[in-house]
Give the backbone structure.
Amino acid sequence: MSALNPDYLFVFILAAFVGFQLIKKVSPLLHSPLMSLTNAIAAVVIVGAITITGEEGATPLAKTLGFIAVFCATVNLVSGFMITDRMLKMFKPRGK
Amino acid sequence: MHAFVPFAAIISSSLFILALMWMSHPSTARRGVRAGEIGMLVAIVGALVQHEVVDYNLIIIAMIAGAAVGIPMALLMPMTAIPQRTAISHAFGALAVGLIGAAEYYKHAHAEYAGSFIVWALMFEMLLGFLTCTASVIAFAKLQELMGSRPVSFPGQRIVNGVVALAAVVIGAMLAIDPTQTWLFPAFVALALLFGILMVIPIGGADMPTVIALLNSYAGLAASAMGFALGNKLLIVAGALDGASGFILAVIMCKAMNRSFANVMFGGFGTVVAG
């Protein structure tokens, strides 16, 4: 596993195209909530943080760094989704 | 339970794509948020049931503490303070990215990983992660008016920025070529953090939302790089979605302000840019 796995690059390229296509036509009204949502989705790195913290044979250093990383990612995740929701609540009357 | 792990990645990737899709229209936007939340939940459960994960105590404590900080942050911020809240939440996410990269780096700081793709990916990830972290903090400080929102410039700024960026890249490359030089690692982190600050101080407060969108894109790319290093497709997909959407959003926002992208990024150097 010391070289680039082309499968991963393939996945990356396809996902990047999907991302471009999805955002291209978004209404300007939704720019702020969208930014907030992508910010929340970036918190998916919590997956990596969980693995590092809980791994069998994790060193104390890895556990410490992982612990802080899980904490930070959770802050990002919780506040990211909640604030997006709060923003969208303001739109509701107009949306209906 | 372990058989669930690869499917968790597929389910949450799909939900993230749906979240962005639904988010592009006001009538379906809230459904988009739900999809994103469920996707994240599936991703976390998938991570927790991996057979590598044996110790749950620290994870649970960290998650509770994170929620205890994150919930008030989301609820107490006035609605007018949305952009800076996104920025500070971003700083947390980016710091997490950087720290994970650091932990992984120390795991791979052995001669057998010299010049391996994993270490290169980790260096790239940390560079973006740490610079996004400090850049987001500065963006937050400017929007919150903790510091002047005017562009900060000083003589030779471009040169200083260039030297710092170059130094960070060179040290990162040295570490990737020989990961056993752990003494260089703190310098690499410090330079990446410093570059994040230097990158944003010359940009005026009015352009901050664009910068935040761009930082979103960096955080996404960093998450992708982490996915490459850890061999995790979910991170690659989510990161690529963020990377692409953050970038295109930054470009759209520039267009909406009738500015060119380069103008926002580099225009603040030296002068206050005329609109």
